[in-house]
């Protein structure tokens, strides 16, 4: 069996990585959450177990089972096997893992979300799942009760992307429906 990862945030945006055989997938029993760790001042997007939720995402092969580069990209996260919980259309079932922040390292609320990071995530969902997928991302993500730092003009997120006017409008409209507070950089 091949090794695959399940991406649920920025990894859904295929322009942020070069992993082969990326395809749409769903992960049952997990829910996204914005959380803070001692790794950096910005909030990370993570997942936690939630038997009532299924989230959309993307699975992609890890060539030669070389997890080192992906583990480096996902510093602060731990991998969890989720093979049985992933629904996909691949003809051969792969071994799938998901990255999640360990609960013990989540000190609570606080920290800010970089708008440039959120933009990358939503752009990926729009490209893979359309407007309904972007809306589902917001609906299946917790932890919106924090500041979103508007860094679009001077992006701080290292894998930032330029959004179209239509993509920006989707993000901006969705933010009116969550308890986040948008603040300028």
Secondary structure topology:
Blueprint: E1 3-7, E2 23-37, E3 40-61, H1 68-73, E4 78-81, E5 86-88, E6 95-100, E7 112-114, H2 115-139, E8 141-142, E9 147-150, H3 165-175, E10 181-184
Helix pairs in contact: 2-3
Write structural notes for this entry.
The protein is α/β, with parallel strands linked by helices and 185 residues long. It has one domain (3-184): Gamma-glutamyl cyclotransferase-like (Hypothetical upf0131 protein ytfp, Roll), CATH 3.10.490.10. The chain has helices at residues 68-73, 115-139, 165-175, and strands at residues 3-7, 23-37, 40-61, 78-81, 86-88, 95-100, 112-114, 141-142, 147-150, 181-184. The strands form 2 sheets. Strands 1, 2, 3, 4, 5, 6 and 8 form a 7-stranded mixed sheet that branches. A hairpin with a 2-residue loop joins strand 2 (23-37) and strand 3. Helix 2 crosses helix 3. It is globular and about 45 Å long. The model has no long low-confidence stretch (mean pLDDT 92).
């Amino acid at each position: 069996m091949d090794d695959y990862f399940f991406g649920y945030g920025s990894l859904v945006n295929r322009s942020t990585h070069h992993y082969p055989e990326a395809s749409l997938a769903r992960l049952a029993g997990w829910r996204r959450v914005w959380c803070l760790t001692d790794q950096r001042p910005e909030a990370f997007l993570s997942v936690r177990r939630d038997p009532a939720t299924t989230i959309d995402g993307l699975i992609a092969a890890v060539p030669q089972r070389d997890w080192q580069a992906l583990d480096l990209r996902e510093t602060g996260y731990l991998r969890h096997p989720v093979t049985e919980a992933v629904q996909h259309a691949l003809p051969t079932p792969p071994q799938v893992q998901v990255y999640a922040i360990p609960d013990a390292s989540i000190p609570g609320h606080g920290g800010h979300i970089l708008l440039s990071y959120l933009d990358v995530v939503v752009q990926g969902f729009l490209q893979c799942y359309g407007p309904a997928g972007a809306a589902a991302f917001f609906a299946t993500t917790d932890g919106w009760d924090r500041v979103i730092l508007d860094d679009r003009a001077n992006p701080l997120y290292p894998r930032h992307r330029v959004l179209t006017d239509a993509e920006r409008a989707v993000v901006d409209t969705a933010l009116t429906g969550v308890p986040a507070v948008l603040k300028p950089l």
